[in-house]
Design a protein that fits this description.
The chain has 36 helices and 14 strands. It has a domain of 61 residues: Alpha-Beta Plaits. Helix 9 crosses helix 11 and helix 11 packs parallel to helix 34. The protein is elongated and about 105 Å long. The strands form seven sheets. The chain has a two-stranded antiparallel sheet with strand order 1-4. Strands 2-3 form a two-stranded antiparallel sheet. The chain has a two-stranded antiparallel ribbon with strand order 5-6.
């Protein structure tokens, strides 16, 4: 097959380069993800992103810049390393390491050149840096996310989909994903040499090209350079250059360092050694002349080395002599009396500590409930046929959030045994008997419940909780209850426990000398010391709580919204049903997935203030996500402070639940109108026919086409490449011109036997 022949024709050094790229793909992409997994990243986003931290938003201040750098901390280091390497050695990252650009190049190399788009004759520099200016300034200004046109997302997600990853499939078949796959095909697989995306749309390549051009000015840096006296004008190097950086001018090859990637292929194919990757030779021409007389090299001046002065050794016996002189004096007697007094005070302190150690433990169960509930095997089947247990493990309860709260603070009506179900009901808004140390008042969730009651979830349960109605609460209610989101979990969560133990490994050995009992070790010590290990819930925990409902599409499709004015109920839109999936595809969702806490959770946007329970409808003027309040919401502390600038209106109003982020063919989005209105879907009508034409043509020629002698040029742009880059007329035009005589008539065909 022709594809195999194309691979065999690859020069030896290029095979070595492709081996490195294949290794890079296996390290960066699924299914191995070796390098991203070292920093808890699922792909090249989050901490590893090298393409967003230098975006320019109107009104940015140094704090905004610092926030952007902090989000992509590792990406900044990698980007800086790439630029330093480029300055000294050329664009080695782009040509030898980058799997995102190298993978399309390898695929393109196996496809016949005839059915490709020849882009190398285009004015690359104006197009590249024109788009780069749009990427840096105009796209942020208009609210177009840089992530929506990013092959650092597209290629890794494509590998993830091939590996069977659900998120990869979701992206590849979404509206945004399909457009990006189309760009990858047209500017990668079906472009000549496969590097059109790198040359036109890659922001890293744009900055890399500038650094490459700057470094080429210095003679000590290595670059692809041409020895003009050796160049024969054969143009093989220009034909093989994968970026179109080499152009023939007056029969001599000229290298454009803004486009050159230092891939070394031009060096491999030059038989005359006229082009090489090297530093410039030293110029031995004398630089300083006076009346035609050369100056000799300046003398090598050296400084006089002075030995440091040696310090005199002091007599080490001075302390002994001084102590001997002091002994027996009045001062010595005063010091001795002070020592006796210190020993006495320490002894009395030790006696007091021993009394504390032997003190009785605090009674952890003032209501006596554990007399029965601490017993094992208190299992029974209730009226619903559900197996339930009334046994409570004391050590688990004491170390939980409510471990220091007496049972009857919540179960207030229970007075006798056996307990009645209605007497065991719990109201979360009731006050507890525990006094909060900071204010000296009984602690209560009443204000939280009041805020919750005013939210869109306000119809959810806040009281009447019993062990017997847990299942009915989940099946019958549309809105969540207190118990669905919050449980009596351990005060120190399981994921925080290793950090807690590492920071306070002296808890049992030191604190336990004075403070005894499970209540102290499990609850009170945790209450005091947990503050040092951070909040009990992080942003991923908040999202997990929301996704208990919102990730369930079946449940979300049943949700009905009541009109406050008319009282009518209507089903929610598809955008609401798939809100959890669309959010997960946004930058905020991917940052939190990579454990970068600068990403915004659901609550950060929908309930940023108060007790974080006041989620309101977007149409409510009091809502944090109402159009008039988005500026303040986005400009929260350590978020987008520049959002307050009026020029960033497009950025502030960016839709974080865009339907184009979920698969185009999705049962949860049945409305065709919602899809057709999308600009991304409209773009598919342009990409799909073009991609099909090139795909069918390339497949047919690779399987059934016959190899012809000579060089094959692309059907799209091939003639322009020959005329502009190679300084020669296209063969097709030459044949057409030779087939006509001087007067524009076709020349007669010669008969057999004639000369």
């Amino acid at each position: 097959m022709r594809a195999i022949d194309n691979i065999k024709a690859i020069p030896g050094h290029q095979k070595f380069r492709y081996a490195i790229i294949i290794l890079s793909c296996s390290l960066f992409f699924a299914p191995f993800l070796f390098l991203p997994s070292l920093v808890d990243n699922p792909d090249l986003c989050g901490k590893l992103c090298m393409r967003r931290f230098y975006l320019i938003f109107p009104g940015m201040d140094p704090q905004d810049v610092a926030n952007n750098i902090q989000v992509a901390s590792i990406g900044v280091y990698v980007f800086t390393t790439i630029m330093m390497t480029t300055f000294f050695y050329g664009r080695m990252w782009c040509s030898y390491v980058c799997p995102v650009g190298g993978f399309p190049e390898m695929v393109s190399r196996s496809i016949d050149d005839r059915w490709k788009i020849e882009y190398r004759a285009l004015p690359q520099v104006p197009i590249r840096y024109g788009y780069f200016a749009v990427y840096l300034v105009l796209m942020p200004l208009l609210g177009i996310s840089a992530c929506t046109l990013c092959n650092f997302i597209t290629v890794p997600r494509l590998f993830e989909a091939i590996s069977g990853g659900l998120k990869g499939f979701a992206y590849v078949f979404s509206g945004i994903g399909l457009v990006n796959i189309g760009l990858l095909l047209l500017l990668g697989f079906f472009s000549s040499k496969g590097r059109a995306y790198c040359q036109f749309l890659c922001p890293i390549g744009a900055v890399d090209g500038l650094v490459n051009r700057l470094g080429a000015v210095f003679r000590f840096t290595r670059r692809v350079r041409v020895e003009r006296s050796r160049c024969t004008g054969c143009n093989i190097c220009a034909r093989q250059c994968m970026t179109g950086a080499i152009q023939m001018k007056d029969g001599i090859a000229v290298v454009d360092q803004l486009s050159c990637m230092s891939c070394h292929e031009c060096v491999d194919v030059c038989d005359w050694g006229a082009i090489d990757w090297r530093s410039a030779p030293l110029d031995e021409t004398p630089k300083r002349k006076k009346k035609g007389v050369d100056f000799h090299p300046q003398p090598n001046w050296t400084a006089i080395h002075i030995e440091p002065l040696k310090k005199e050794k002091k007599d080490k016996r001075w302390r002994y002599l001084r102590l001997k002189k002091l002994k027996g004096s009045r001062r010595w007697r005063s010091v001795r009396r002070l020592g006796v007094l210190v020993i006495f005070v320490l002894s009395m302190t030790a006696i007091g500590v021993s009394q504390v150690v032997s003190a009785a433990e605090r009674h952890p169960d003032p209501d006596g409930c554990f007399s029965c509930h601490a017993l094992e095997g208190l299992d029974y089947i209730d009226k619903e046929g559900v197996l339930r247990s009334a046994s409570i493990r004391k050590e688990h309860y004491y170390s939980s959030l409510h471990g220091s709260v007496p049972c009857k603070d919540c179960h207030r009506k229970i007075q006798d045994f056996p307990h009645r179900v209605e007497n065991g009901e719990v109201d979360c808004s009731e006050s507890c008997h525990v006094e909060e140390p900071s204010k000296g008042k009984p602690y209560t969730h009443k204000k939280v419940v009041e805020e919750f009651a005013e939210s869109v979830h306000g119809d959810g349960w806040t009281k009447g909780f019993t062990g017997g109605n847990r299942l009915g609460e989940g099946r019958e209610e549309q809105n969540p209850s207190c118990r669905q989101c919050h449980s009596n979990e351990p005060y120190i969560s399981e994921k925080s426990m290793p950090k807690f133990k590492d920071a306070f490994d002296h808890l049992d050995t030191e604190c336990g000398k004075c403070h005894q009992g499970e209540v102290w070790l499990g609850q009170f010590s945790g209450h005091l010391l947990r503050r040092f290990v951070g909040s009990r819930w992080d942003k991923n925990d908040h999202n997990k709580s929301c996704n208990q409902c919102h990730a369930d599409r079946v449940r979300m499709a049943k949700v009905e919204i009541e009109n406050e004015d008319t009282g009518e109920k209507k089903k929610v839109e598809s955008r609401f049903v798939v809100a959890s999936d669309s959010y997960a595809m946004t930058l905020h969702g991917r940052l939190l997935e990579a454990n970068v806490m600068q990403g915004a959770s659901c609550i950060d946007c929908h309930a940023p203030s108060g007790y974080r329970h006041g989620v309101l409808d977007d149409d409510d003027r009091q809502s944090a996500t109402h159009r008039e309040n988005l500026v303040e919401t986005c400009a929260q502390s350590e978020c987008h402070g520049f959002a307050k600038n009026p020029l960033n209106k497009g950025f502030v109003e960016t839709d974080l639940h865009d339907l184009d982020m979920v698969p185009v063919v999705d049962d949860s989005v049945p409305s065709v109108t919602e899809r057709i209105d999308s600009n991304w879907v409209k773009g598919l009508f342009i990409f799909v026919p073009v991609v099909l034409v090139f795909a069918i043509g390339a497949f047919w020629r690779s399987v059934f086409g016959k190899r012809k002698k000579g060089v094959t040029f692309s059907i799209v742009g091939g003639d322009a490449f020959q005329e502009k880059m190679l300084e020669r007329k296209a063969k097709r035009k030459v044949k057409k011109r030779n087939s006509k005589n001087t007067y524009g008539k076709k020349s007669p065909k010669r008969e057999k036997g004639n000369e």
